[in-house]
Amino acid sequence: MNSRWTDGSMQARVRKRYAAERRFRFAGLFAVGLSMLFLAILLFTMASRGLGGFTQFEAALPIDFAKTDLFLDPAALRGPDADQTIAGTDLEGAISKAAAETFGPSAEQMFGAAAARNLGRRLLKDPGLLERRETFWLPVGSAIDVAAKHDGDAAAEKLVAQLQSKDQLRRRFNLDFLTASDATDPSAVGVWGALKGSFLTMLVTMVLAFPIGVLSAVYLEEFASRNRWTDAIEVSINNLAAVPSIIFGLLGLAVFLNVMHLPRSAPLVGGLTLALMTMPVIVIAGRNAIKSVPPSIRDAALGIGASKMQVVFHHVLPLALPGILTGTIIGMARALGETAPLLMIGMRAFIASPPSGISEPASVLPVQIFLWSDEVSRGFVEKTSAAIIVLLLFMLTMNGLAIYLRNRFERRW
Amino acid sequence: MKEKMPLNATTPVPTPSAAISAEAQMRGPSTVKEESYQAEATAQREPTTRVPEVPASNWDVPETASDRLPKMRADAISVFYGQKQALKDVSIHIHDDRVTAFIGPSGCGKSTFLRCLNRMNDTIAGARVTGKIELDGQDINSSAMDVVQLRARVGMVFQKPNPFPKSIFENVAYGPKIHGLATSKTELEAIVEKSLKRAGLWDEVKDRLTESGTALSGGQQQRLCIARAIAVDPEVILMDEPCSALDPIATAKIEELIHELRGRYAIAIVTHNMQQAARVSQRTAFFHLGEMVEYGKTSEIFTNPREQRTQDYITGRYG
Q1: Residue B270's beta-bridge partner residues?
Q2: How many A/B residue pairs have CB atoms within 8 Å?
């Protein structure tokens, strides 16, 4: 027995080693705890501010269409041009007149664009309403909504109190927020247009960046000979992944809009620009994933007479796919949250209707959030937070889908 | 010493390997140093000039091929990795009714030579092969020979078992599939069954063909790789140290398998284990520092080598 291992100084060293280990564990725990705390604060702030954006106060408003000066013909609403007839009618005027009559002159502005839209829809559904006096629950304007949810100006607060005492105010889920598009009136805005724009943009990005990125990675890793050219390409790709995104926006502006004259503000151009940005990420992740496939698998396939391409597509690529998909998820998530390059190609325009194709003008969620956060009206505050929640849910869904696909590919082996 | 004791008692195979495997393990060149530390082992050790015991029965294979053309003929093969010459002027004939063993210390070029025979060296960047290799009289580097077909005709089993991460069935069926050897599913199933039976694996895996090939034990994986190579009906099978990652029992099974496959396929095997070469082969080539020092009947190489270097290697002076 050697006393070297049992004497005091050795014991002290051992204790010091364990103490260092404990300190390190504690530091790690602290870091994780801190980030969990920040995440919790973020989620709580967003939820507390944003969840209100998904609800909307409605007030009961009796309207007697016979007494209004609309002169709407029920027959016209049953005809083929009903949409245009409604659009050409001053429903907002009729509503404010009815509101002033019912709740007093101060209530003239209590309803907004959302109420007119709502009323128009109901009239289209049932033109018979025009012939009788009817009480409608209509979404109140932004000022009243804010006053009812939090606290607004004195006049609005007074009106809310008056409505609540008569039980003429109720809170409803705001389906319009998910189905409508951008508007000037915060009570009438919705995220559908931006959501659809984001979806179409991501589609274009995915369709371009994934195959091109993966095939580039496969070519560079499996087929290209190593020389000065491939080295230069590798360095360029690595640098591209680190280029600030707004530079890609400038590139998109210069090439896609000014040279190729593609439609401004369209998901097509947005998708092209974001594809440029995402591709290097996919190429790098793809090359690493392909590199990590053990060479013994390649030998095995070559040894029984598989061609180079069969080796790559039957063995290497399926084994590398989970890694490639991980890189793609990261790249796509970054592209989905990107604002700066899209501003450069004109996607910050006010678009009041959802795009019907990839060449129609559209907005995307992060830009929509940016635009709303710039608005003066108080009603936009909770709409901004609500849109952030929608964006995060969209991102979670997208990533969840990708992770599900990845796990399925992994389980096949 | 202790871990090798059970082997003697439990090895069930009736091949020559059983008779000498325990002793072979004890006296292998890698264990010579270790033995010298143990007094009892030293007492048992024979003088360094002894030759390993090999079963004479293994060498009694009739020499029918002597007047026939060799299956593969390698003529003046040199291999360069960049500037470095890994193989110098090697000429060898491989006959289709024999097992040819390549022995030699690590880095002597025996695996490099084996990989020339089915042009696996093509996949290594910077590797350059000179000389001529013929398969049935046809130059394998000529434009008339397709490298993909060559590799199907000259199959390979690697040092580390490398089954595809797919089902056992898929592993064996892959070769026939890509070469279009089976026209129907039943035909493919027949090929898979035949190959697994020849590789002595059928009874162990017939009920779990859909399980992953990587879930098998190391020895089973190596036999699966042999079944995979057999499935495309090759003419030559190259084995690159097929047992170096396996335990003695799995090794004995693979050696038994080599005995059974002999005569059906020309077999060339690279091995570090001289006793293994003595057990399974009829011809042995000794490589040293990129040169082929001696090539001849296994019986002669191991009992009466012509070259001093061969004598030194076989008796454990170096390697």
Answers
A1: B102, B240
A2: 68
Kindly state whether A294 is in contact with chain B, defined as any CB-CB distance less than 8 angstroms. Answer: yes
Residues of chain B in contact with residue A306, where contact means CB-CB under 8 angstroms, are 148, 174, 178
Other C-beta atoms closer than 10 Å to the C-beta of A37 total: 10
pLDDT in tens, B50-97: 444 555 455 555 555 445 678 899 999 999 998 899 999 999 999 888
Q: Which residue of A has its CA nearest to B164?
A: A297
Choose the closest CB to A304 out of B152, B160, B212: B152
Non-local (6+) Cβ contacts of A126 within 8 A are none
Q: How many Å apart are CA A363 and CA A382, to the nearest integer?
A: 19
Instruction: Report the distance separating Cα B278 and Cα B305, nearest Å.
Output: 13
| B163/A302 Cβ within 8 A | no
Type of residue found at B9: A
DSSP symbols for B62-122: --GGGGSPPSEEEEEEEEEETTEEEEEEEEEEE-TTSEEEEE-STTSSHHHHHHHHTTGGG
Contact A304, B175 (CB under 8 A): yes
Residues in chain A closer than 8 A to B118 (CB atoms)? 303
Confidence at residue B28, expressed as pLDDT on a 0 to 100 scale: 41
> What are phi and psi for residue A226, nearest 5 degrees?
-85, 110
Cβ atoms A199, A265 nearer than 8 A:
no
Using the beta-carbon criterion (under 8 Å), do B162 and A299 form an inter-chain contact? yes
- Asked whether the beta carbons of B90 and B102 are under 8 A apart, the reply is no
ipTM of this complex: 0.76
Write down the pTM of the prediction.
0.80
